[in-house]
Amino acid sequence: MAGYTLILAILILGGIIATLGDRIGTKVGRARLSMFNLRPRDTATLVTIATGGMISASTLGILLLLSGQLRDGLFRLESIRSELASSQEQKQKVESELNAAKNEQEKAQQRLEQINKSLVQAVRKQSETQALLQTVENKFQKADEELKKASQQEADLLSRIQNLTKEQENLQNESSQLRQEKERISGELASISRDRETLKQKVDESEQRLIAIEKQRSELTSEIASLETAREQLIVSLEALRKGNVAIFADQILSIGVVRPNLSSADLRQASIQLIQQAERNARELLDFLPDQAPKEPVIKITEAQIEGLLNRIKDGQSYVIRILSAGNFLKRETKIAISADVTLNRQIFARGDEIATLQFTPNLAPQALASRLEQLFLLVSFRARREGVLANPLTGQVGNFPPDALTELFKIASELKSPYEIRAVAKEAIFPASSLTLELVIRQNGIEIARFS
């Protein structure tokens, strides 16, 4: 009701002030008054604005004067909002505490119900106990009479208890032993499992090795058959050697050539065929056919697979030395010659002046001892040259040679030396696998070169 009265008062007061403002504005307009050096019309407008401001100010003043809530809303809005937020937080906190308290209450209620149940059970048990107590009291008389008998039985029971105690201790010891035995068996089972895996792996490896051994056995069987054939051929060759009819010896070089690097497949094939054709010509010459008995077919038998195998070994674009060798001993006028191809990478093994071997000599050696010592030097040279890749003579097994006249001159100079010296074998020129090993022998004494022979 107070709100309606306030609104009614504001409306009446606004109407009165508006009416007064209108009349004042009218009078000012009619009187054509001027304020602040303004025109009369502007002065009337200013008076009207002032009147409207008074209406608003009076309205707001009445509202603030009569409504405490409005005053709080205008001047304490922020603090009210803060208090409201704080109240909200407190409300949430109280609600949380209330919920927790309800949960605690429910738990307490549940515990109370359990206690009540326990209490009912306890009361029931108490009744039962009282009944039992009464029964016990009734039986006490009889028990007292039987006490003497029970004393004897008690002694017997004590003895049995002691025995049972000992048995319990024994059982505990046995249990401990059984537990230890169980742990030991578990360890053994784990070890057996590991051993089983290991044995399985070994069995698998053994099976693989058996397969490899079987493969090797087959290869050895083939090799034995091949060796048997070679033995028979060797017997024939030995017989022929005795008769002096061997024309081509095993591993004899029939042709040799160097393949240049970076050749095309067609060029490699052409070079290989040329080497085989050269071997064919040399073999025919060595087999010493009579003019009217020379075979029309090639005497060297080679398959396309052998040619492809040779090409696969030299197709990587590097330079190789290829030697076509006799695969066995062959008699004069044989018409089927087996060959093999020896492929060696053509690289510089020794540069000019490289030392190949050195040997120390003592002075005043007898000619035979000096010759033996020089032979050892040549053997060292041959050994190192072959180890580095220089191809040896397949018949003699030696690498290179040395001129006899130079060797005679070396003997003459060395026999005149009166203090220890060394002889170095050096390469006279760059040496490749297929090169002829040309040597220079240098006599040095106390680090000074005495003489050089080649």
UniProtKB/TrEMBL annotation:
<keyword id="KW-1133">Transmembrane helix</keyword>
<protein>
    <submittedName>
        <fullName>DUF3084 domain-containing protein</fullName>
    </submittedName>
</protein>
<feature type="transmembrane region" description="Helical">
    <location>
        <begin position="45"/>
        <end position="66"/>
    </location>
</feature>
<feature type="coiled-coil region">
    <location>
        <begin position="77"/>
        <end position="233"/>
    </location>
</feature>
<dbReference type="InterPro" id="IPR021435">
    <property type="entry name" value="DUF3084"/>
</dbReference>
<dbReference type="Pfam" id="PF11283">
    <property type="entry name" value="DUF3084"/>
</dbReference>
<keyword id="KW-0175">Coiled coil</keyword>
<keyword id="KW-0812">Transmembrane</keyword>
<keyword id="KW-0472">Membrane</keyword>
